[in-house]
């Protein structure tokens, strides 16, 4: 890697925290494309220091730039911008607050931190007149947060729905095409390097929930944290679920769904959730395979928009980080700032139980008179309207598939609970929420 010999006059000086998968690519591109970046930013952009946990493990980096003391680096007089690519909440939160307080702008890809503490970070940025950019925190290379923060700032967004976790999308795509179960597919994904050694944050939906919190906050001008997001992972998705979906021309995806919900009295709230969903194979999100991400945005004036691309990986994520860095540099050149936090709407967050959803329920039932009536009665007792019923005979049993209209999620859950206790029901084979069809 070429090193920067001495600070250039007027250059924007960057402290890079973390030089792993993403940070390594940022360092490489910052150096290899220094001339291009300077031309685009209107000023040279240089590395002033790189903080890593184990400097001795980085012979590829210029030793004079390396340090293990991120805390000291972020407030150095030599630094204008801090690019944080370490991850996790502490000690990173403290470093970034200190950096902002010292007037440094911050670029980060840290969704876990932003999903919990963006309000504090924005407040610190405002107090110091600094920038806070985080395009890479959701959907890697895909320009998605800038469109929400800027391009759609004049519109009224009603829904953001998409695939924001590549690991789970890879696993579900593989289960769909092979017919294999969850555990063996996860093992295969780990062996091939698509899932991390500890895949918990991905498969249990924490990563997607953090991203949903960030998307909902930006889309609805409301502070939404990860703990406001209803979260279910993919560990309970079975080969039977995918089989049931296939029979009906559907597939299963882990979706982040952020919606503006208006109740009967016209009161608006925000719903944010992450869970497995059955969608028609004809839906654009169904065709998103492997580790790719795709996000659907609906807005009153713009209509439907779709964003698609690589949601992870060193170089793709570095692309988004460098875009932010150029934006910060441009702002500094003209003496302005990028967009601040926009949380003026402060809408309440609707609990999952009150969120309107639709269910697909696949049952194995006794094949005799009155069974369908009992099942239908359970739905009616909970105020849930049935949209479609499909029955096929399997020996002395029948396979019954019920797809509902929209109802509060809690009503659907209680219905399934009651049905599972009916004598005529042998087994609840699959229960999954449905999206992407008429309500
Ligand atoms: P890595 O684990 O590859 O790299 C982390 C880096 O942080 C390493 O260089 C590590 O040092 C350094 N580090 C860890 N602890 C400290 C510490 N206490 N002080 C100084 N440095 C430290 O992470 P990624 O590059 O994958 O991810 C970075 C961020 O980007 C995360 O927030 C992640 O969520 C986000 N992100 C990642 C994507 C991806 O595809 N990987 C996609 C989108 C976002 P050392 O090298 O010495 O161990
Ligand atoms: N673990 C994440 C994923 C990386 O699988 O999508 C990108 O945030």
Annotate the secondary structure layout.
Layout (H helix, E strand, L loop, with lengths): L11 E6 L3 H12 L1 H8 L3 E7 L14 E2 L2 H4 L7 E4 L7 H10 L3 E4 L2 H18 L3 E2 L11 H7 L5 E7 L2 H13 L3 H10 L8 H4 L2 H15 L9 E2 L7 H9 L2 E13 L5 E13 L11 E8 L3 E8 L3 H21 L21 E2 L1 E8 L4 H11 L4 E9 L2 E8 L2 E2 H12 L4 E10 L5
Parallel strand pairs: 1-2, 1-4, 2-3, 4-5, 5-6, 8-10, 10-18
Antiparallel strand pairs: 7-9, 7-11, 9-10, 11-12, 13-17, 14-16, 14-18, 15-16
Helix pairs in contact: 1-12, 4-5, 5-10, 7-8, 13-14
Tell me which ligands are bound. NADPH dihydro-nicotinamide-adenine-dinucleotide phosphate, L-homoserine
User: How would you classify the helix and strand content by structural class?
Assistant: alpha/beta
Number of domains: 3
Q: Count all strands and give the number.
A: 18
Q: What oligomeric state do the depicted chains represent?
A: single chain
Distance between the termini: 56 Å
Beta-strand portion reads 25-35%
Major sheet characteristics: 10 strands, mixed
CATH class of the largest domain: Alpha Beta
Mean pLDDT: 95
Quick one: CATH superfamily of the largest domain?
Dihydrodipicolinate Reductase, domain 2
* Net shape: elongated
CATH architecture of the largest domain: 2-Layer Sandwich
CATH topology of the largest domain: Dihydrodipicolinate Reductase, domain 2
Estimate the helix proportion, in percent.
Answer: 25-40%
Query: What integer value in Å does the Rg equal?
Result: 24 Å
Number of helical regions: 14
Unreliable stretches: none
Catalytic activity: L-homoserine + NADP(+) = L-aspartate 4-semialdehyde + NADPH + H(+); L-homoserine + NAD(+) = L-aspartate 4-semialdehyde + NADH + H(+)
Domain ACT: 360-433
Cofactor: a metal cation
Enzyme class: oxidoreductase
């Amino acid at each position: 890697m070429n090193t920067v010999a001495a600070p250039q006059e007027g250059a924007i000086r960057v402290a890079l925290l973390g030089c792993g998968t993403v940070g390594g690519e940022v360092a490489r591109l910052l150096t290899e494309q220094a001339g291009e970046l300077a031309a685009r930013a209107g000023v040279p952009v240089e590395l002033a220091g790189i903080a890593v946990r184990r400097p001795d493990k980085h012979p590829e980096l210029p030793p004079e730039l390396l340090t293990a003391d991120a805390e000291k680096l972020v407030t150095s007089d030599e630094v204008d911008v801090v690019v944080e690519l370490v991850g996790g909440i502490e000690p990173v939160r403290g470093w970034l607050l200190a950096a902002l307080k010292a007037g440094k702008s911050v670029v980060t890809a840290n969704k876990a931190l932003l999903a919990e503490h963006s309000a504090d970070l924005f407040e610190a940025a405002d107090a110091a007149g600094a920038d806070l950019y985080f395009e890479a925190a959701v959907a890697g290379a895909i320009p998605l947060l800038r469109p929400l923060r800027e391009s759609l700032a004049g519109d009224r967004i009603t829904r953001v729905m998409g695939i924001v976790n590549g690991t789970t999308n890879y696993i579900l795509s593989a289960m769909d095409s092979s017919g294999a179960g969850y555990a063996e597919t996860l093992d295969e994904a780990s062996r091939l390097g698509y899932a991390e050694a500890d895949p918990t944050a991905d498969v249990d939906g924490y990563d997607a929930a953090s991203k949903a919190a960030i998307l909902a906050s930006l889309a609805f001008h409301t502070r939404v944290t990860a703990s406001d997001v209803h979260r279910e992972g993919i560990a309970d998705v079975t080969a039977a679920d995918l089989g049931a979906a296939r029979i009906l021309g559907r597939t299963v995806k882990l979706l982040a769904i952020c919606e503006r919900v208006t109740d009967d009295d016209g009161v608006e709230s925000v719903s944010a959730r992450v869970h497995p969903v059955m969608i028609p194979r004809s839906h654009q999100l169904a065709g998103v395979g492997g580790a790719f991400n795709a996000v659907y945005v609906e807005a009153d004036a713009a209509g439907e928009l779709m964003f698609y691309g690589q949601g992870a990986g060193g170089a793709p994520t570095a692309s988004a980080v460098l875009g932010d860095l150029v934006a910060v540099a441009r702002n500094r050149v003209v003496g302005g700032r990028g967009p601040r936090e926009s949380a003026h709407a402060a809408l309440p967050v609707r609990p999952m139980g009150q969120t309107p959803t639709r269910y697909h329920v696949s049952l194995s039932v006794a094949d005799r008179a009155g069974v369908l009536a009992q099942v239908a009665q359970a739905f009616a007792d909970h105020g849930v309207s049935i949209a479609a019923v499909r029955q096929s005979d399997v020996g002395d049993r029948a396979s019954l598939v019920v797809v509902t209209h929209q109802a509060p999620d809690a009503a659907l859950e209680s219905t399934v609970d009651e049905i599972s206790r009916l004598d005529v029901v042998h087994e609840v084979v699959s229960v999954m929420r449905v999206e992407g069809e008429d309500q």
